[in-house]
Amino acid sequence: MNGDLRKIALESSMNGLTGRSLAKIVSGDAGFVLEDVPHLTDYIPDLPTYPNPLQDNPAWSAVKQYFVNVDDTVAQKIVVQKGSARGTHFRRAGPRQKVYFEPDEVHACIVTCGGLCPGLNTVIREIVCGLSDMYGVERILGIEGGYRGFYARNTRQLTRKYVNDVHKRGGTILGTSRGGHDTSKIVDSIQDRGINQVYIIGGDGTQKGASVIFEEVRRRGLKVSVVGIPKTIDNDIAVIDKSFGFDSAVEEAQRAINAAHVESESGENGIGVVKLMGRYSGFIAMHATLASRDVDCCLIPESPFYLEGKGGLYEYIEKRIKENGHMVIVLAEGAGQELMAESMRSTEMQDPSGNKLLLDVGMWLSQKIKDHFTKVRKMVITLKYIDPTYMIRAIPSNASDNVYCTLLAHSAIHGGMAGYTGFTVGPVNGRHAYIPFYAVTETQNQVVITDRMWARLLSSTNQPSFQTHQEVTKSMECLNCSTDGSPSKKN
Ligand SMILES: Nc1ncnc2c1ncn2[C@@H]1O[C@H](COP(=O)(O)OP(=O)(O)O)[C@@H](O)[C@H]1O
Ligand SMILES: O=P(O)(O)OC[C@H]1O[C@](O)(COP(=O)(O)O)[C@@H](O)[C@@H]1O
Ligand SMILES: [Mg+2]
Questions:
Q1: How far is it between the farthest Cα atoms of the chain?
Q2: Can you supply a Gene Ontology BP term from the record (predicted)?
Q3: Which pTM was predicted?
Q4: For the domain with range 246-395, which CATH number is right: 3.40.50.720, 1.10.3470.10, 3.40.50.460, 3.40.1710.10?
């Protein structure tokens, strides 16, 4: 860092401390704060460095400034006022002049964990090709079946040839799983196999797992870079602009919405209901609705709704049917969970990773609407319910996600080769950065219903907000704050 930057805290003692307590915070002038990421030299002094092989690479040597300045940082907040403090920054991603690994020395591995997401295979492909093309690395192992694959499944050698076409396929060629994270067995396996770069692709749960793997690696003093690549179709990962696969999902969701629209237009008092993914965040539903313009109502977890009475969903449906003859409802899978739990006896069930298993809001709501209109209102309605969630999740990534996945993979590789560790990569206000694990795991990204985007949605669908201004403000006060009272990052 610049000489005028003052390190105020490097790290706490390594005994039993995790996450933010190990933060590397650097402060500078005018309220500048760098939330830095760990480096191998933090705990292994005097590591030798080598010139970055990119400088002899014909493709790269023509780039005017192909090495990132070691002091470059990316601002978390870009809308500022004259007197604002400069605020939080992250280390800029990209190739460094010096690397901490020789090509022959690198033994990398890649693992995918959690739910599927379009683009997983592209990230795998680009890590393999990037390591090989840019850094001459040839020993790359694929860990099969998620975290437990480190100690309970087979591995496979990943070569350029092997991964050549995989970006055209959905899913993950390595397989994935939930649960099964046993830190010491995983690190034993890393150590036994002589792996020194670990690329971990997964969502918030996976990044928490990666963080504890990093801490154990550091405790053992191993020269192993632990690098996270954030994945989730729900787009709920904090700090980064957007997660890969999200655009593909929104695009694919249009097909289901179109089908619901066609069905609803063709039946008597037709109602099309489409359920989309989004456990805690309604980004897919919100963006798919805004993109389509055929949707009359979008329901998301962040905005509670009610059915009966004035301003309720039934009243709105009846109004829409009467004025337009048909309507389309899009809902995120996490919407209305509390409402449903009130009317059903539900038991709290979890998946093997500890995520709450949701009740099927699409089925439930469809039945409620049918019952209300046929039994109470004595109206004929034709309701068609479409659940395309797994069909959407299983597609290959679209063109723009493919490019995004390539950038993520390259940022990850450059960071690993430069000796950074214990970090996640991702774009922050359009520039790729290295972000400490705790920053992406301590909060989740959610739709802010007091932001302009939700207002745009409400004005495009004309649906009721289901809440008074006071209620919205109050619920956002709770939602926007992490446990330390700092606002969580929203899109
Ligand atoms: N707090 C945690 N600590 C360690 N590992 C975790 C933690 N939460 C989840 N994991 C592991 O991360 C993997 C993926 O988590 P999951 O929640 O299923 O998906 P995602 O990473 O997409 O959120 C699982 O193998 C799970 O055991
Ligand atoms: O059926 P599965 O595999 O448990 O996945 C369902 C969940 O996976 C998701 O698609 C994404 O979740 P993760 O990214 O946390 O894996 C959620 O939207 C959905 O609730
Ligand atoms: Mg998750």
A1: 80
A2: fructose 6-phosphate metabolic process
A3: 0.92
A4: 3.40.50.460
